[in-house]
Amino acid sequence: MDKKNFLQKNIANIITCIRIIGTVIMIFTSVLSKPFYIVYTISGLSDALDGFVARRTGIESKNGARLDSVADLFFFITMMIMILPTLIEVLPRIIIVVMFVIFGARVIYYIYFGLTKHKFISNHTILNKLTGFMLFLVPYFVMTKFFAVYASIICAITIISLIDETITNLREDDEI
Question: What is the pLDDT of residue 10?
Answer without folding.
Answer: 86
